[in-house]
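We give this protein:

***
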Amino acid sequence: MGAASLIERNDYAFGQLNDIVGFHIRLAHGAVYRHFTETFADLDLTQKQVSVLWLVDDQPGVSQIELGQRLRMDRATTMTIVNRLQNRDLLRRERSETDGRKQALYLTDQGSEALVGAKHAIGEHESWLKSRFTSEEIDKLVEMLARIHD
């Protein structure tokens, strides 16, 4: 279905809501989240948990505080996610060698294996999502979305 047909269909289905950018962002987020959840169903991991595993893999020893800041999560959310991943033996905490007040985070072997599976699922999910756009549109979309979240 072409863009003009989608716009006409949405004008009818959504009425004046069709003019609300935030409404379309919410619908798009819902569709992306549903597909992500379906793709990740067998892995038993959430988007935030995968982000934590990925960042810890990229930066072994990252502090729990810095991890939360980078992923824009509050302390309670960060602690809950780290606790769950640690309880599943996917992540381990160690006292930081440079600052004894901080917790340094590392993947366990099981966490590394889970991340490999998650990266494969992300590849499938990204292919699904990117198939809707040209490479130029993807670049522009990422640029435009960054204006909202940065």
